[in-house]
Amino acid sequence: MNVYRSPENPIIEPKDVKPSRPDFEVVCAFNAGVTRFNGEVLLLLRVAEVAKSDDPKIARVPIYDHERKEIIIKDFSKDDKNLDFSDSRVIRTPNEKYLTSISHLRIARSKDGIHFTVDEAPTMTSANEYEMFGIEDPRITLIDGTYYINFSCIANLGVTTCLASTKDFTTFERHGVIFLPDNKDVEIFPEKIGGKYYALTRPDSRSYKRREVWIADSPDLLRWGSHRHLFGTRHDKWDSGKVGGSAVPFLTDEGWLEIYHGSDKVHDRYCLGAVLLDKNEPWKMLGRSDNPILEPETDYEIHGFYGNVVFNCGVLNEDGKVKIYYGAADTCMAYAEISLKDILDIVR
Amino acid sequence: MNVYRSPENPIIEPKDVKPSRPDFEVVCAFNAGVTRFNGEVLLLLRVAEVAKSDDPKIARVPIYDHERKEIIIKDFSKDDKNLDFSDSRVIRTPNEKYLTSISHLRIARSKDGIHFTVDEAPTMTSANEYEMFGIEDPRITLIDGTYYINFSCIANLGVTTCLASTKDFTTFERHGVIFLPDNKDVEIFPEKIGGKYYALTRPDSRSYKRREVWIADSPDLLRWGSHRHLFGTRHDKWDSGKVGGSAVPFLTDEGWLEIYHGSDKVHDRYCLGAVLLDKNEPWKMLGRSDNPILEPETDYEIHGFYGNVVFNCGVLNEDGKVKIYYGAADTCMAYAEISLKDILDIVR
After folding, report:
1. Per the omega criterion (within 30 degrees of 0), is the bond before A296 cis?
2. Of A180, A184, A228, A243, which to mutate for an interface test with B (greatest number of B Cβ within 10 Å)?
């Protein structure tokens, strides 16, 4: 696969993002939703922050308290033998799991698609009991002049997908929980097909340990059903561990092209692949790439908060190119281009 | 709590049910959906069958093969050290989990509500890839002359909830997957509230290990959204481990009464409790029983395929009594009555 990576990569790093509070530090700016707005490229970044600690023996965890309607800090002693700090992303108590960071969403804009100005303040932050540990990995779908934003909400109740909408990226309307725990990596198609809205979803089966891609339809974007399993993991390939939708699907002459992510069972190394879905019956898969179209190779993709990851929430399909804005090593944003024809050639 | 148990209990046992094939044995007849139909009490039983094995060293597992459209038998050697037979309900391989039995749904009818005639043949059986390991635990909701039946579908893709409907309990229409993995113990309310259908659901969060009750609404019974967390486990009580809706809710002067099930974290002992929901805003819980209204006490509730279980999929609310048809020890059906007033007195 012939991939062009921007020599400016990473195009956005944590240091480019102002913390939301003086006692917070931005550790990741990644997994952005992507759209064009007012002629500019607009990224809706996931910004992960940790609470700074003066005491190296204390981990300070930010949590949204929905009753107090503010972020509170919970302290954990690193000497406490009942606590498990082995994964940098979480702290496990005997009965509970906390995230070490809390994520919000923040806008970045660019005229050239490479050099971005990041907003000084968060765009959307945790606002209810479903968002206790933050909001993550937004996808932006433009339908009839309204930008619909779905995002993962993390709480001790589980991982849900919620929906919001905006026309101007200034005011946002919240529409509640659209997919039950655990479900993330949802992508809403940009137009109705046969009179219905469609979305890719990624339920997580606790009983059978499956994280695979399903498709649903809806009359109103809020209520979803007609669930069908669309595609799964492949035991002998790079996507043997789990798969999920990544970019909002876009229509080509051949059908709907979906850039998805997968990771392997042994190393949990995240790559991007592609599937082609029937234009009129998107629950029918017409083809799938054998190999990744993008995989972690550069230093900024291999090393970071969680290494060996390329992960994507949106692309721009322009000028015969698929312009991929992607999170690298769960830390920063990077940019790559692949010709649309090259991708279609390997998914047919 | 003043509970009347029928002296005829158990009212239906596995030996009362004819196997669906000569090489199968019925091991459980339990967790029936309940309704009145043509003046009779109609139970839609869950019937679990195992494949008989002539060789005690071979476990024979029935699996629905959706490509061949028939049940096939998969043999497992009990000497194989890679296999785990420690739970009577499942066989675990290093990467997969199989159920030792396969369930279908079967009608039983009674004029007096105690003495039942069980149909000779199954009513509904596995019919697609979501039902590979069987269909289970039906709930029946009568709406405008149509009986809607939702049931749990077990497959290696996960545990989903599917919907079917019938007007005559002779022909059934399938409506597909209405809740994504893992979700079971769904109860559809018997009338629209404020112009919408409502259902209780029980998603299973893999990431946060929560099995609790949510509520959703729908325009058409097929597509569900506006998901809200309704009630959870209580760490110091009998329902500390998991909770789920059980009976189809019914309307009282005080609000919607829901008989739910819960089990404790240590012993996984299943009891029934009650919650009262607001008549017009059913996502508001008005009260909840501190203690179980029914708990495993008799021999047939304590000993069986999975002991110390009372589990319920439907009740009849008649003559001031809540008539509870329930599965006992995951093996047989039993009957109990509790006065409606007694239940309302403890949930207010």
Report:
1. no
2. A180
Cβ of A208 within 8 Å of Cβ of B158? The answer is yes
A332 forms beta bridges with A328
Nearest to B181 among A210, A216, A226 (CB): A210
Nearest Cα neighbor of B144 from B178, B78, B191, B87 is B191
Question: What are the tens digits of pLDDT across the range A96-155?
Answer: 999 999 999 999 999 999 999 999 999 999 999 999 999 999 999 999 999 999 999 999
- What are the pLDDT digits (tens) for B168-218? 999 999 999 999 999 999 999 999 999 999 999 999 999 999 999 999 999
Q: Is the peptide bond before A112 cis (omega within 30 degrees of 0)?
A: no
Rounded to whole angstroms, the Cα distance separating B15 from A87 reads 52
Cβ distance of B180 and A177 shorter than 8 Å: no
- Closest to B59 in 3D by CA, of B43, B49, B73, B44: B73
Query: What is the rounded CA–CA span in Å between residue A333 and residue A310?
Result: 10
Phi, psi of A77 (to 5 degrees): -80, 125
Domain ranges of chain B: 3-347
The answer, for B330 touching chain A at a CB cutoff of 8 Å, is no
In this structure, whether the domain defined by B3-347 belongs to CATH 3.40.1650.10 is answered with no
Beta bridge partners of residue A179, listed in sequence order = A161
Quick: pLDDT tens for A44-53.
Answer: 999 999 999 9
B162, B213, B227, best to mutate vs chain A, most A CBs in 10 Å: B227
Q: Which two tokens stand for residue B216?
A: 């959703």
Mean pLDDT for the stretch of residues A54-72: 96
Q: Which helix (H) or strand (E) is B327 found in, with range?
A: strand B321-328
Where in B4-83 does DSSP place strands (E)? 4-5, 24-37, 40-51, 58-65, 70-77
How many CB pairs (< 8 A) connect A and B?
Answer: 139
Residue whose C-alpha is closest to residue B151's, from B141, B171, B134, B136: B136
Query: Which of A100, A62, A96, A107 shows the shortest CA–CA distance to A78?
Result: A100
By C-alpha distance, the chain A residue nearest B198 is: A223
The answer to whether B205 contacts chain A (CB < 8 Å) is: yes
Instruction: Give the ipTM.
Output: 0.96
